[in-house]
Amino acid sequence: MLSAVIIIYAEGCGIFDTRDPEPPENIRSTYIEPTSAEIVIQNLEFSILEKNSENYSKCISSQNFQYVPDARSLLLYEQIFQSWNPQAEKHYLDNLIISSSQNSSSVLFLDNERLTQITSDSATYQADYVFVFQHNKVNIPKSARGNLYITLASDNDLFFIRKWEDYRQNDTNFTWSEFKANFSY
Fold first, then answer.
1. pLDDT over 80 (residue 9)
2. The model scores a pTM over 0.90
3. How far, in Å, CA of 48 to CA of 100, rounded?
C-alpha cells in the first residue's frame, strides 16, 4: 500500500515525465566547394568569422603544405615552425577558439588583394591582412597585421593552400605567425 502511494505521488510530480530534448549546438558553417582559388580565400575568411576549424582545415592542402612565418617569428619560434604542418594549423586555431568566448569577435580583413592565375590549376594570392581574434589569454595582442603570400594549387579539381608565407609590415606589428606560435600548445 505504501509503495502504491509513493508511485502515485512520484507520477503526480512529473518525475517520470520525459523532458524536452536540448537543442543541438549550432556550429556556423559557410563552406563552398573550392573549385577556384577565389573560393578558397572566401572559405578562409568565413572559417575565421565563424570560428570553424574544420572549414579552416579544408582550405589547407593535406599534401605538401608549407608555412613560412615572418622572419622574426621564425627566429623566435624556430622549434615550433620547424615541423609545422596541416595538423598544426588546425591545432593552433582550435586552441585559439577554446581561448575565446562563443560571442567574441573574430575576423580577417584583407586589403590590396591581388590574385594571379598562373595555370589552370595554380594561382598566387597576395594581400595585406588584419587578423582580429578576441581571446582571453593575457599579454598576447588580440589582433595581428602583416602581408600574406599564398600559393594555391588544384588537386582533383579543388583548390587548396599549398604554401603560405607571412610577412611583417613593420617592427611594431604582431603578426599572424605570432598568433600561431602562441596558440600552438
1. no
2. no
3. 12
